[in-house]
Amino acid sequence: MESGDESGIEDERGSGPAAGAGGREVVLRRVVVGAVVGCFVLGGALMVMPDGERPPPALPGPVARAANAVGAGAPASLPDLVALIGEREAHLRAHPGDARSWAELGAAYVERGERTAEPRYYPKAEKALRTSLRARPKRNTEAFGGLAALANARHDFRTARRWGEAAVAASPKRWTAYPALIDAYRGVGDYKAARKALARLLELPSGGVGSGGGAAGGSPSGTQVLVRAGLVYRDQGRREDSAAALSDAAALASAPAERADCLVRVGELAWERGEPVESLRAFEAALRADPGEHAARAGQGRALAALGRHSEALRAYQSALAKQPLPQYALELGELYESLGVGGAARAQYDVLRARVREGAAEGVNDALVLGLFEADHGDAGGAVRRLRAEWARHPSAAVADALGWALHRVGDDREAVRFATKATDRVRGGAVRAALYAYHRGAIERELGNLGAARRHLGEALRINPSFSPVLVPVAVRELGELEEVAEVEEAEGLEEVEEFGGAEGV
Predict the structure, then answer these.
(1) Long-range CB contacts (within 8 A, 24+) of 417-424
(2) What is the 8-class DSSP label of residue 6?
(3) For a tag site, which of 34, 348, 461, 501 has the least CB within 10 Å?
(4) Tens digits of per-residue pLDDT, 47-84?
């Protein structure tokens, strides 16, 4: 069947809970118990099966692995995904009314698009998932969840929230319905709803036994529960809890692709904490687990640059972009070149960023956040404000508040800018994540407003959180903080002189 078929089939053969450690122990204990129960259930089923009946033959290894992963919302290796897509397409040519297989095919396309940063797979995913819905319009949890995952991949978090809530409403006791919904809530900035969804997820049997989610042996389910717990803890500013949950997830994961993905998240969190050596160690472990985990290459670039190993950092970024050309990677590489004084190479990467954003937009991908951040610093700041205002209306998250505040600062509107910078770092609103970039942006804006004490506090906080948070902005932050500290010292000295003079006058 041709690629333009409404079904979305294409021949792929030629294409390359609560708090702290106690909460973590509860999560992990449920995960392990679920896996053990799953083994007993499976063993019991085999023992009581009559001799004349045998289970259906197992799917080929790569297909089974990929089916397991996409059914659990977990990463799968690219070769396994290609095998699964080919197998499902062949099956659906013979059985076009199989709603579950259509949903599985759509989920596989979503994962393939994410792993390769090729948005051309997203329309194919949408066709397959909507075909599944036509075949079974009601209580089609697999299709609802697949559409939520697709919308998350496109950064359309409002749509993801709608489909994720539909999946949970259809199957509230099926754990696989929750991860995409939690991701959507985080994307729209509804951190309270994300915490509530996580709490509900943690109340379910974490092994996924009997959930129909496609998890085998409990590993994908337990790992993905821990990953979402780690991400929600991060948003709450609970960095130690987040690190522990993500490390537990990496230890629990059995599939190489899933383990590598968990290790990338461990590395990213270590990077945010200003720990480049630990971050680099995690990214290297991710690549040992799965050499196709290209996000780890970009992570290596970040950590190596922080360690002053610039040539290695450039090679790592180039390798990541060759295999997974995300606009964010092009921005990071361009800014690294800029910090090294290689302006031509930096501009070339900024052109790559623009091109990738255009390609993604043609396939329904929303890259307003990364494009707005880029334009604020390297292009049309006024256009960045307009773009990010629209993004704030759609997705009022801490990340968008930070970016919009910075863009407003860049056009000189610091009074409005500080309102958004404050929202990005306001614990009451939900911006509790400790991000060096957010703190720097707020400090720089406060400096322009003449609020020098607050500016000094937030610039210092940025450098304490991560002394290497940006190759371009860190030298600026160091200089600005130094100037503010000199001003503070002069003011303190003048204040002491006034006190001494006043005391002398009283004595007279």
Answers:
(1) 417/445, 418/442, 418/445, 418/446, 418/449, 420/392, 421/445, 423/398, 424/398, 424/399
(2) T
(3) 501
(4) 333 334 445 555 458 999 999 899 888 999 999 999 99
